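Need a sequence for this fold. Nothing fancy.
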């Protein structure tokens, strides 16, 4: 298979889900108290395949930011995803089947739907036809949000070590995002400066993937998720968030 054709995450095929290994029932009981999920449909362990084009280390640190896949060609009616354009010239955010491209033009951020010819250097996508809703506790920052998401996934029987597409909605007392303009500010602080937003946002949607042990491949170091944010006309890579009234959406069977 060519690189442009993409690849499924290798753990999706040959692993024993942690939910099938020895479970510490007292811990699971505490996790169930921390989150509340609707019971409309029971999810199986990580039922949705995640497709990966490029990996963070090779694209952001090693400079291999050539186009690997045409964004529009891999966006279906139920697609979600996150990534970056070739040359790190902008962000790609796929939400509810819409592929949005954020770019920096004249020091301003612009957002539009992806054109047929636009290529991504890095892209993580999944098709999710049915979502299950969970209520999350308030999150003071990105770290606490990830902790709350992990608790919800484990309580719902998901393997936190395998990639899971997620969506989160809520109100942000503080939302911090960036849009790359030729370099990743975390991997190359001395490169072209990104566009940034840091402030409150009444209605925020976060989308992306949660997976532990994939730093440098699917996530930045220190994080177990790769998330983008959409708040009105603001669409970009999530750096930090103080989120209230949050709802987590995870794949249903």
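Here you go.
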């Amino acid at each position: 298979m060519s690189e442009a054709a993409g690849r499924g995450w290798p753990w999706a095929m040959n692993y024993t889900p942690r939910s099938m290994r020895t479970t510490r029932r007292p811990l699971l009981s505490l996790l169930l108290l921390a989150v509340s999920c609707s019971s409309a449909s029971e999810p199986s362990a990580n039922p949705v395949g995640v497709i990966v084009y490029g990996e963070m280390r090779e694209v952001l640190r090693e400079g291999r930011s050539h186009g690997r896949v045409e964004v529009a060609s891999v966006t279906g009616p139920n697609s979600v995803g996150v990534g970056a354009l070739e040359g790190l010239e902008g962000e790609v955010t796929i939400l509810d089947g819409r592929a949005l491209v954020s770019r920096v033009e004249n020091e301003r951020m612009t957002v539009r739907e992806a054109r047929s010819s636009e290529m991504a250097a890095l892209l993580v996508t999944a098709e999710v036809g049915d979502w299950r809703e969970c209520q999350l506790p308030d999150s003071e920052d990105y770290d606490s949000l990830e902790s709350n998401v992990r608790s919800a996934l484990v309580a719902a029987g998901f393997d936190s070590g395998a990639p899971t597409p997620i969506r989160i909605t809520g109100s942000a007392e503080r939302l911090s995002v960036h849009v790359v303009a030729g370099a990743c500010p975390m991997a190359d602080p001395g490169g072209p400066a990104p566009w940034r937003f840091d402030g409150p946002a009444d209605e925020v949607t976060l989308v992306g993937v949660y997976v532990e042990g994939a730093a440098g491949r699917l996530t930045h170091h220190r994080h177990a998720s790769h998330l983008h944010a959409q708040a009105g006309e603001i669409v970009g890579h999530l750096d930090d968030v103080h989120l209230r009234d949050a709802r987590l959406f995870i794949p249903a069977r």
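For context: The chain has a mean pLDDT of 86.
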